[in-house]
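ugh ok fine here u go
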Amino acid sequence: MAMASPIVSAEPKRDKLRQLGIIALNGMYDEMDAEGVLRQAVEDVLPGDIALVSSFGADSAVLLHLVSLVDKDLPVYFLETGKHFAETLDYVETLKSVLGLTNVTALYPDPEDVKRFDPDGTLWETDPDSCCHIRKTEPLDKIVAGFGGWVTGRKRFQTAERGVLPHFELTNDDRIKVNPLAYFSHEDIEAYKAKHDLPEHPLYRQGYKSIGCAPCTSAVAEGEDPRAGRWRGLNKNECGIHFDFNGKIAAPMSQSDLTLFKDGSFKADPWKPWAEGDAPDAVRYVHVPLTVFVENREAFLASPHPIGLQVNPGERVEDVADDLARFSSIAINFPAFTDGRGYSSARLLRERFGYEGELRAVGDVLTDQIPFMRRCGINAFVVTNKATRAAIEKDALAEVPLYYQPVGEGREVPVGTRPFLRRAGN
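structure:
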């Protein structure tokens, strides 16, 4: 399989008469309601030559309900990427049954492509566009090639890029893409679901307002863009199957774009630092300074969103000992090579208070420090120093065979070295 180029330098030539036809369609049906647009597309514009592609996500029930009104036998394709939430797969079956849809087909990625390009299933971390290309774009391209057009559930309110979305688009290969819900607002969606008593995606009430593959989907805060939880921490906001309208998709992330080193590789980092003006009851995937957490403890504990903790030199981790289970990640700040107080904080968290989550080092993280940080229980590193990064990539981190200080959890200095420093009984 030839991997898709992330940036297209020249736009293919299009059929100008067909382009004029699309402009005319949008002019004629601009004010038509969603059912009318879909019916027009299915019965008049592309009779027998159109299919629908659904993510079976948070808002999918609305468009699929419209399909049930217009044509229950309309081909509906679901991109089964192999990365979906279990709740989404259950939701597919629920909507098929409730709405009486008779022609729903799952599209799977080519197993040979997956084996070749994503053998360990982690391509999404470093090159999310290529992951989407393998698991979504290529399987879909093979299907839509057999139709004159297809229906999507995109809406203008979802992102700034979709803010001028029309009812009818012309793709680069002169197919017609139909967006019946283009003008729907969030309130319209909610009102429609309530009016027709449509089943809700099981994750929607948990803050998942736009639902895609599980590794690339997170909950969103009140007031956030509904798609802010898609590819959080990655330079990406579209999967690539809607490349034509948006003009471009994000360039694949190179390793140099990634600064979080964990589990043996550099990874995408969804976490952000606390910013002035952040609301304690709304932030998520933010490392909250320890002092801020203590001052607003009740609000942070009441919030359902995932949060982290940042511990700066001199701060007492004892003050949050009873709340450590609240944090999905804890960042220990090492502001300077000569400031070693972070090591003590890390050992207290691991050995005395039993914190088992991600414990990361941030700040001035240098190659000589990493072996010592690891001994203290730190298992993730935000690396911005070029020399340290080069050492990690070459697997050339400094080795320290002899230690003066023992560490907890039953471990001691390496067997056979400095035996006079070992504790009694070891």
